Amino acid sequence: QALLRLRAGDIDLLVCDLDMPVLDGEGLLRELEALPGAPPVLVVSGYVDAAIQERLRRSSHLRGIMRKPFDVLQFADRAMETARARDVV
Questions:
Q1: Strand, coil or helix: what is 79?
Q2: Burial (0-12, 13-18, 19+ Cβ within 10 Å), 62
Q3: Which of 3, 15, 32, 89 pairs as cysteine with 38 (C-beta 3.0–4.6 A)?
């Protein structure tokens, strides 16, 4: 469903977890590499070790990683910053 919606466009920011059914966060980031105009991505996860961070950083769309649990206001600020940065590029 996410890929169909992303192909339709007009998404300013994609927030995803690493642990999702059908297509995990790393797989989704790989799929975005072939999608023209893909939005910036903010990954949220309860567990991100150094190896996972290294793999995630290979994505040209990754703009940040937030570890759960996080403060909802910090998340909102980070999400807005990331979405706005897309307009500047």
A1: helix
A2: middle
A3: 32
pLDDT 10s digits, 31-73: 899 888 889 999 999 988 899 899 899 899 999 999 999 999 9
Determine the Cα–Cα distance for residues 37 and 86; give it in Å rounded to an integer.
Answer: 10
- Residue 7 to residues 39, 71, 72, 86, Cα–Cα distance (Å): 10, 31, 28, 17
- Tokens describing residue 84: 């706005």
Per-position b or e across 24-54, b if 16+ CB within 10 A of its CB: ebbebbeebeeeeebbbbbbbbeebeeebee
